[in-house]
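Format notes (please read before filing issues)

Several people have asked whether sequences and structure tokens are stored in separate files. They are not. Every record keeps both together, in the order shown below: the sequence lines, then the token lines. Line labels are part of the format and must not be stripped during preprocessing.
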Amino acid sequence: MELHNLRPAKGATHSVKRIGRGEGTGHGGTATKGHKGDKARSGHKNKRGYEGGQMPLQMRLPKRGFKNINRVEYVAINLGRIQDLAEKTNATEITIAHLFENGVISKNDRVKILAGGELKGALKVSGHACSEAAKAELEAKGGSITIE
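Then the structure lines:
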């Protein structure tokens, strides 16, 4: 085998469809665009939601509600889950970093401590928010909550 006999594998290459280069090519005349209409014209771009001038569906349907750009999303973590994590890792202090390291939350999640489940002993817990019931239960068991 030498450089001058190298060829692509059979069927690996295709000839380019040369559009609008005369009738002899088989792609002359309308240049494979059919007859007239918007799609046959130069500069045509298919805009998202465009329905040929008819009122688009997203404009015909009624709009409801709004999205509050100032909303703060929290990941809710119950005291029962915190107790399970403390038992599993033999920890007396549960921080946001500790929750992230154990795969409970993602890196930029904000954490809210809720009172679901049962707490067995005193724990130091930190989070971004806490319900009143969770705070009361933590303090009743001799633990504490730190809001960051």
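For reference, the curators noted about this record: The radius of gyration is 33 Å. Residues 70 and 110 are 14 Å apart (CA to CA).
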